[in-house]
Amino acid sequence: MFFSGSYNYPLGLDISDLSLKLVQLKKTGDKISIQALGKTNLPEGLFEDGEIKNKEKIIKAVNALIDKPKYGNTTSREVVTCLPESKTFIKLIEVQKTEENILKTIEAEIEKHVPMEIDEIYFDWQLIKDLPDKRLILVGAAPRDIVNQYIDLLDEAKLSITALEIEPVSLCRGLLAEEHYKFKGRTGKNYGIIDIGAKRSNMTVYSKNTILFSFTMPISGNEITKKIAETLKIDARKAEKAKIICGLDKNKARGIIKNTLYGMIKELTAKINNSIMFYDRHFPDYGPIDKILLCGGGANIKNLDKILSEHLPVKVELGDALINLNEDRQKISKIFSETHSVNTDFSSKAKDKTSKITQNDSMAFATAIGLALRGVFIDEL
Fold first, then answer.
1. 217-362, what's its fold?
2. Minimal CA–CA distance to 238: which of 252, 221, 254, 226?
């Protein structure tokens, strides 16, 4: 039997401090769909701010996820993975045209922005626009010791590395139609992308079909969960469920969770406003940001997009991690569905106080999908 499709694209492996997410894609004709998908949570201590602290346990978790994904079957040992966002640097820079070698010019410019010596980092660059008097170049950099840690980890896991990416690159590929290989030649919209994670959050600004800059924000989903647990005197597992179920509903949990979340929202709003002002000041020719997209596990907080829209000058929407795939939305939503239930009274054990919610976890897979798309899109170039 013959198949008119490709099923051996590299795995997209999103490695973060507290979880692993895996996506492999397949392509049949012009249609890209999910071949395999999985997620596993990691205990505290295996990573510390992106640095590997327990290689053996991580390798075991990675291989278990590849061998037994939640959906489908993996057909490759090649991987595309991302380096920890907090340890990397990506920015669009301008370099003047001179007689000097372009690489030397880029190195000199990197030293102005990255707080490390040039021989302590790996870097890559891409020419975005060649103007009469200058060049616009997208530069990415990461510490050599961090990169080497991840290479050693994947080598010892018996995986073949196709590429190591800086996370905002894969995130944009997973969330923006402008990144699809068929979109080339047209100018898309301007975006701010907010990835709200368990340990930290980050914002990436994307305009004229390229990343302009990205930065980490000290906003942690786990810290919010801990505050809820301390306030309500419940364990972290229940607090996490309560955060998801109650969200910004003032009528649930006596409004305690809503009030805790508002502290995070106030800080997040301030950071986003600062980034918008930075963008407007340094990139006035690119036009205003059209919309802000939310992704990551924290994006599932009920009504977060609506609340942020009320406090920001730009509309906020939930990101669509399936935008560059050709999946049956109804069918695939079952794969991403997670059901949570908890007693939201917290002063009673009455069963009739239990609340339940089923949420779509696809936004937490945006980076993994973007990583997996790299192989598919490059195959088409």
1. Nucleotidyltransferase; domain 5 (3.30.420)
2. 226
